[in-house]
Design a protein that fits this description.
- Pfam families: Glyoxalase.
- InterPro entries: Anthracycline_SecMetBiosynth, Glyas_Bleomycin-R_OHBP_Dase, Glyas_Fos-R_dOase_dom, VOC_core.
- This protein has an eight-stranded mixed sheet.
- It is 19% helix and 40% strand.
- It folds into two domains: 54 residues, Roll (2,3-Dihydroxybiphenyl 1,2-Dioxygenase, domain 1); 52 residues, 2,3-Dihydroxybiphenyl 1,2-Dioxygenase, domain 1.
- With 124 residues, the protein is α+β, with helices and mostly antiparallel strands.
- The longest helix has 12 residues.
Length: 124
């Protein structure tokens, strides 16, 4: 089981970033839409660790650029329940990310913003 399962790379201009990574990596990210939100997924197969390009309003590269996803498959809520007791802070409670499962966004004990990910979809 991989500890790292996904990376969101923040971008100011989604189409420009897709073009850049297509040329540089010679593999074109696929633009998808989930609940009126456009993003682009890097090509990957099966359980390969991958990521996507995520457009951000007023993008600031030093604070908005990268979100690393940690694997807590099957125990997302339990992991979130441990965050504050371990010295962190919950930024976003568990929520669906469509066909990609569910995530919660937290700050760890050192102030890093990371995501906790499960393949299971949270029922709201």
């Amino acid at each position: 089981m991989n500890n790292f399962v996904w990376v969101d790379l923040g971008v100011a201009d989604l189409d420009r970033a897709v073009g850049f990574y297509h040329k540089v990596l010679d593999r074109k990210p696929t633009i998808e839409t989930f609940e009126q939100f456009r993003f682009a997924v890097f090509p990957h197969e099966g359980n390969d660790v991958s990521g996507c390009l995520v457009p951000k309003d007023n993008f600031q590269p030093l604070t908005d650029s990268t979100l690393i996803y940690f694997n807590v498959n099957g125990r997302l809520q339990n992991a979130v329940d441990q965050v504050e007791a371990a010295g962190g802070k919950v930024i976003e409670q568990p929520h669906s990310i469509g066909p990609h499962g569910s995530r919660a966004i937290i700050k760890d004990s050192e102030g890093n913003t990371v995501a906790l990910h499960s393949e299971e979809t949270v029922q709201l």
